[in-house]
Amino acid sequence: MMSMNEELQSTNEELSTVNDELKTKVDQLTVANSDLRNFFESTDLAVVVLDRNLRIRSYTEAARAIFPLQPSDRGRLLADVSTRLATTDYLDGAAQVAGGGAAMQQRVTTRDGGRTLSLRILPYRTQGDGIDGATLVLTDITDALSLERELAAERERLDLAIKAGGIGVWEYRGGTGEIFLDETGRHLFGFSPQDTADQVHQVFDRIIPEDRTGRRAGAGRGDGRARRFRDDVPAGPEWQGRWIKGFGRVVTSSAPHRMVGVSIDVTAEYAIAETRELMLREMNHRVKNLFAIISGIVSAASRSHDDVTEMADDVRERIATLGRAHSLASPAGEQQAIELAALVEATIAPYRGQSTITIDGPPLLVDRRCLSPLALILHEWATNSVKYGALAQPSGELAVGWTLADGKLRLDWSETGGQVPDDTGAKGFGTLLVQTSSRQLGAELERKSLDGRFLLSLTLPETSIIEDGGYRVDGPYVSVEDVLAHLDGDKPELACAILDVRLRDGEVFPAAERLHEAGVPLIFHSGHADEHALQSRYPGAAVCGKPCSPSLLRRTLSMAVSGPAEGDRATG
Which of 218, 248, 265 marks a domain boundary? Predict the structure, then answer.
């Protein structure tokens, strides 16, 4: 009897222990259920939990905005519940995941297209890590996508503005010396697509040597100072390159610190400032020279006149001629091409009668863009000759001549009987003016003294000569559209047309047909066209292959027009 009581007591104690453990588990389950209920009620996510048969187990309050669920819908097939989504593809995805497939994510929209949601379908895992259903999580990303589109549009506008403004963007990391340049920045610094430019020293190497002092400190300050950078033009005494201004700001919120900035090409602004300064100095220089020239004119007139009235008339005429020569170097309005002989004559005319002057050279016109610098050079040479050279002496002789060879113009200025200048002295502003004007022309300048003669030679490139042998040129035109528009307008009679086969917007043949029908002789200047085919299509047409020397082109032009009358035009 005692043994049975002891066993009952032991059993009661075990049951009490089990009850305590069960109570603990119930409490834990209650807490878990409370946590789950609070999560479901507090979250803004639309969550629907399904069993392996896609029956509804539970859902969040936010899910009711997508599916009109009621508490009685638990245990109901999700397929039987209406939805605001545009498609029911989510059912196939849920079935696939509940059957053991991988989790998936996709975008879905509402039927009215007003909202876009991100749908994630996750496997519902049991405590033993088995899959017993699927969980659908829907997140409204409409506002995020709208913001993304706005940011993309803003970024596109910014990119377009940066590209349209020719602005280069860069980022510099001082700790490592790394620099990152965008496409425009690489172009500004003269890097080709194949060049490596990821270290700051590679960019600094593009700065001309005399402008490198303090560049690292300037990069650290981001002070926006303009600096010159070497492009693809070799550095040297006559360096011509690109001016770049950079603006940067240090970003202290990053570690390590970095500098972000932009670079812009300010070459045009510096060229304008340089030209303005040069013109101001040239004006002062010319005014001073004009006083010296007028003084020389008065002195020369006093030696050759006994009558005051005649002397006054002579001086007045010479000063007026001097004014006309001055206007050639400082034209008002748009410049036009001018005969080189007329330019030389206008420059020297004020000094005729003081010395022996000869002018000789073939008839040709000079490109209007070259007129001003060439007039400045001739005016400076004449001024120096009046002050120190042949034109300062009654016995002095001045010979000005020009020749054409290999498409280049060589202008020779020869003085005899005057003072030979000393080249060892300091360079004055007049010398600087001649050098600057020569550089603008792309010309080669040579000066030397030989047997008491002072010689100046200026060799100009082919681009300076736009017309030769009496022809006047219309063009060049770089597109078929431009040629056809020119032919449709009022135009003088054309003596000949020189045509490249391939223009910017296609082959030249539509324009060639119009010209051929109008009876205009054609010269095709091409390196790849079939000469026989062109002459069959356009009887009488000439073909000059590329490369073609200027002399050959001139001979072909002369043969094509058979000696044009004065005023005829050639177009190209």
Answer: 265
In angstroms, the CA 217 to CA 200 distance is 13
**Where in 31-148 does DSSP place strands (E)?**
46-51, 56-59, 104-109, 116-125, 131-140
Residues 73 and 214 in one domain: no
463/570 Cα distance (integer angstroms): 16
**φ and ψ at 259, to 5 degrees?**
-120, 130
275 and 259 in one domain?
no
Range of the domain at 212: 165-265
Q: Name the DSSP class of 410.
A: E
In a domain, 328, yes or no: yes
d(CA 43, CA 65): 13
Provide CB contacts within 8 A for 302, sequence distance 6+: 311
Based on the fold, state whether residues 339 and 458 are members of the same structural domain: yes
Token pair of 157, please?
A: 């506008």
2 CA to centre of own chain: 109
Residues 270, 336, 318, CA angle at the centre, nearest 5°? 95
Distance of CA 92 to the CA centre of its chain: 54
Assess whether 338 and 460 both reside in one domain: yes
Identify which has the larger pLDDT, 299 or 126: 126
* Polymer length of the chain: 572
The answer to whether the beta carbons of residues 523 and 496 sit under 8 Å apart is yes
> Within this chain, do residues 281 and 430 fall inside the same structural domain, yes or no?
yes
> 457: which strand partners?
412, 446
Q: At which of 265, 291, 307 does a domain end? A: 265
Nearest to 446 by CA among 377, 367, 399, 362: 377
Tell me what pLDDT residue 222 has. Answer: 43
pTM of full prediction above 0.70 = no
pLDDT digits (tens, 9 = 90+) for 89-118: 999 999 999 998 999 999 999 999 889 999
Look at residues 423, 418, 417, 378 and name the one whose alpha carbon lies nearest to residue 400: 378
Instruction: Answer whether residue 150 is part of any domain.
Output: no
Judge if 260 and 297 occupy the same domain.
no
Strand order, beta sheet including 46-51? 56-59, 46-51, 131-140, 116-125, 104-109
Exposed, middle or buried, 498 (CB in 10 Å: 0-12/13-18/19+)?
buried
Q: What is the CATH number of the domain that holds 438?
A: 3.30.565.10
Let me know if residue 403 belongs to a domain.
yes
Percentage of residues of the chain with pLDDT beyond 90: 14
Helix or strand or coil: residue 282? Answer: helix
Residue in 398, 310, 413, 321 with CA at minimum distance from that of residue 355: 398
pLDDT for position 236: 31
